[in-house]
Amino acid sequence: MDSPNLNRATPFDNLATELVELIFWHCVYSTTVIACPHPGKAPLLLCEVCSHWRTIAISSPSLWTSLSVRCGRSTSKPSLPLIRTWLDRSMESPLSIHILVNTWDLAPIRNVALVKDILSLVIAESRRWQDVEIILPNFNYSPLRTTLQDATPHLRRLSIQAESNVSSGISPPPILISILQQSPNLRSLILKMPATGNVFASDSIDRSRLIELHLGCSLTISDCMFMMNQSPMLRYCYFEGVCSGVDRHYDPNLPRSFTLLHLLTLRIEGTVSFTRFFRSLTLPALRSLTIEATGTQSDHLHWNSCELHDLFRRSNCPLQTLTLDNYQPPEDELIDCLTSNPSLECLEVNDEGEGRLTDKVLLALGTRSGDSGCYICPKLTTIKFTGTVRSSDGSVCDMVRQRWRDEASANGVAALKVVHVEFGGMGNRHERDFDVLKELRSQGLTARVFMRASRFL
After folding, report:
1. Which of 18, 181, 192, 408 is the most exposed place for a label (fewest CB within 10 A)?
2. Torsion angle defined by CA atoms of residues 402, 405, 410 and 415, in that order, rounded to the nearest 10 degrees
3. Is the peptide bond between 78 and the residue preceding it cis, with omega within 30 degrees of 0?
4. Where is 77: in which H helix or E strand?
5. Residue 51's CB: how many other CB atoms inside 10 A?
6. For 103-154, what is each residue's pLDDT tens digit?
7. How far apart are alpha carbons 347 and 340 in whole angstroms?
8. What is the pTM of this model?
9. 83 sits in which H/E element
10. Contact status, residue 287 vs residue 264, Cβ threshold 8 Å
């Protein structure tokens, strides 16, 4: 039998080049958004099949428009020459680039030189940036200490995380300022580094089109209010590191109250009172709110009566998730907040301090309201009370039973799916709570119940 002709044409060879390019594109991006170059994966693998495929792959810029780079102790994946080749093959297409420098194994001589070379290559293509994410140990890299020569008209997402060398007084790099000033289409901004707030709050930066904002730096309440007021299209907002300090952006002409019509998610973490912040806001579209008081135990914030409840009443928002981390109100105020949010599905309260969560909230969740005759939060499916819950034995399980399966249906509420409770001890072993929740867990409830330094379920 004659050996088959290995060079004969195949049906695939008769496909239009445009269709082959589309097939190749799906080979690269069907399982990932950012390509991690590997000789055993597309598009590099496609170049090794035959000369025809190689010609099509190399001449298809869309296959080379995303790149993930990881820098280790003394090498990078991909290598510097391959990064250069990759960028060349993308021609003039918009780029998505993620760069991660492993701070835990940084070799200060060889690695720093490599990172500088990589950053120089990437920065030279700034006019084509579309999605850029950079994670660095600090900004002591010369390519970052200059301003951009080109605008970044395609940039839609920018994420930069670094631990700037504060002891040396190093401020945010000039390149960051120029990026923010020359990116008219920026929609998502994530900056996690010291001393960033004063840069982003500059009047020369257009925030009017931002949809996502995440700042992890030293911010004051006035900083947060200023930035939100200048970002009317925000949907997702996260401030971490809010603290006391000089109000760099205090403006007596800043409206005392303003409305963000599109904000869906708000998370704020800090060591100061958020009273003025919540008093100024109206958020009619809010679906998720997280408040976290950070710092030492003695720094935990005291609740200011009615501010959060008034926010909910004023906004009339479809809130689905409420998380209070070391920012627990008196129980009457918490009950008012829950009553104001009939669409709530997930409630998380963590109190590492005095343990002010007792039977009152549990009773309110497990019985019909005296005013309406209905249960509050009828859509609630997840309850997490952690820290130091100080309820009497049986209060938790009685509440859960009223919201479980047949009882839930009879009471007109959704059946619970997840219950996490951490008891504070104080000599109460909660035998009944443990026994009943163990039984309900065997029926399908996801239950995690434990006592500090002792028993758990």
Report:
1. 18
2. 70
3. yes
4. strand 76-77
5. 8
6. 665 445 467 888 889 999 999 999 999 999 999 887 777 787 788 888 999 9
7. 13
8. 0.89
9. helix 80-89
10. yes
